[in-house]
Write a structure and sequence with these properties.
The protein has helices at 12-24, 42-54, 69-76; strands at residues 2-7, 28-31, 60-64. It has 89 residues and is of the alpha/beta class. It has a single domain, classed as Ribose 5-phosphate Isomerase B, Chain: A (3-Layer(aba) Sandwich), CATH 3.40.1400. The chain is globular. It starts with a strand and ends in a 13-residue tail after the last helix. The mean pLDDT is 94.
Length: 89
């Protein structure tokens, strides 16, 4: 499966672990950022991952952040996207 993934500064550490794990399971992971420790705004990251999915470049998308609520709202503003908030390690 092709998975586009992104995280703001709050979700960067978890994203790195997920990228490694998903890749090890044989998935193609498209890491769209952030790669820095400095604070970043999540809406552009959400839009980028959503564009990858709606454009057919990814089968699924994952966004990681602080609470995740803002990310879910931002993703659901993109036509063709239905994002859900998940809390599970």
């Amino acid at each position: 499966m092709r998975i586009a993934i992104a995280a703001d500064h709050n979700g960067r550490a978890l994203k790195a672990r997920l990228v490694d794990r998903l890749s090890a399971q044989g998935h193609t992971v498209d890491d769209r950022g952030s790669h820095a420790e400095e604070p970043v705004d999540y809406p552009p990251l959400c839009a980028e991952v959503c564009r990858r999915v709606t454009g057919g470049h990814a089968d699924r998308g994952m966004i990681l952040g602080g609470s995740g609520l803002g990310e879910t709202i931002a993703c659901n503003k993109v036509h063709g996207i239905r994002a859900g908030l998940c809390h599970d390690l």
